[in-house]
Amino acid sequence: MAASPKYLTGDREGIKEFIDQFDVFLFDCDGVLWSGDHLFEGTVKTLEILRNKGKQIVFVTNNSTKSRTEYMKKLTNMGIPATVDEVFGSSYSAAIYISRILPLPPSQKTVFVLGEKGIETELDSENVPHIGGTDPSLQRPIEQKDYEEIASGAALDPSVGVVLCGLDFHINYLKIALAYHYLQRGAVFLATNIDTTLPSANALFPGAGTCAAPLVAMMGGKKPTSLGKPSQAMMDAIEGKFRFERKRACMVGDRLDTDIRFGIEGGLGGTLCVLTGVTRAAEEWKGGETVPSFYVDKLGDLRVGV
Amino acid sequence: MAASPKYLTGDREGIKEFIDQFDVFLFDCDGVLWSGDHLFEGTVKTLEILRNKGKQIVFVTNNSTKSRTEYMKKLTNMGIPATVDEVFGSSYSAAIYISRILPLPPSQKTVFVLGEKGIETELDSENVPHIGGTDPSLQRPIEQKDYEEIASGAALDPSVGVVLCGLDFHINYLKIALAYHYLQRGAVFLATNIDTTLPSANALFPGAGTCAAPLVAMMGGKKPTSLGKPSQAMMDAIEGKFRFERKRACMVGDRLDTDIRFGIEGGLGGTLCVLTGVTRAAEEWKGGETVPSFYVDKLGDLRVGV
What we know:
2 copies of one chain form a homodimer. Chain A is α/β, with parallel strands linked by helices and 306 residues long.
């Protein structure tokens, strides 16, 4: 089980063998295909080679700020051909979970969102009512009257039954206070994902997990249910949509604690770690519990053997 | 050691005996004297009685948003006579720690502040250079160029050697990103205090601990050194200033994990828990490690026995 991962960079035969054993490749994006706005060399060609071999490509992203359509545009703008159907994001995963799986009383169907437009779009796509999010009336400092109105409940919508945290570039004190009071009144605590960092410009920036962190602290350590990687709710939804044999699928990612764990816990046939994102060296999984089955310096290294 | 706390409400003799055994009373404020802008009944009279008996009063607050002078004004505006010297706040405690105790290289003396004016005022009072805080240029959403400039270091001040987190009502993504990059470059991680909640309007709102929480999450769980209650750095500074016998001092507070723990770990002669703030019932300390030596329903109950 804990066999050493196979290093594929420069191993022409190994790469061929690797590709042949899978029908489906699930790709994390940030840190794998690109970092921020920098597309890694060889990304486009590698995907093209896989498509030409008839492989199913799925872009599995924990990025909650973009809807599937927006994310597809990001992919194509970066020069990566993609369709909306190939995109599976954590906001979409959360929307599906809320609309189809989560039992909520009819009077408590509204979602209070800590996050960006992408979450709102995906909730809309599943007809889930929501407040908060990008509401401009919440883009301001807290005022004295807010304390009174939040405490009394006058500022709260009684139909809110869920607090959904994603990455919110406009996080502020007022929104954290509102979210906390909804949780205190019994709302279900969900997160699109709980990545603490987000790679950009070859560095790390605050991820969705940092937007949930203040609430987790206030709730005495109670964590949200995450609907992004490594949550298996997301894997089940992906399998339900694409209908593949898990042993013939490979998860490709840069993060051990989300991507690689997601693939291992999902029982996929393999996991491929790239060293262009959060994980920077093979030493990082030594002695750890989450070890990929393959790794390369960068995704583009797969071009060599094909 | 783990004797049951003595309940003083309505116990005239018990209250007299309680007061007589102390020379110094350290008071937490929010949740003890008032909640938000609501002064509890009997607060003023109780303090007056203690002063008339020659007791030293110290207002020990983890409120980091106000300087000692501002806090003294808050006290007097609430109708509570107080002098600046009687106020001991977590921002002041942090400023003293940074200026007099923390060893920093001469080129790394600047503090990046996540917090409000009170922290800046207290740092100024100790001649500690600082950036961040209430700087209006940081009161905006993050922009694309920020990612590049933060990642490259161009947007970072190389003289920053400390990140100090207090309660920041204007917390935003940009400031969290900057603080994280300073920490990544080796800045010392300090907090004025780590209370996760702040009582106001008879309810709880996000406390300073929620401003540090995103950074703690990004740093893989690494916590800041806190200079507020229950940190004994604060107790040492208070004792250094007021020079009292610890066995003749009593800490009065509403929070077990900060106030009562602060008094117990500081070896004070007693701790008094009031049930007007975070702690609402005697059941809350049952079976726990932090048990006060006395408790009352509200501070004003001490009037009865005097």
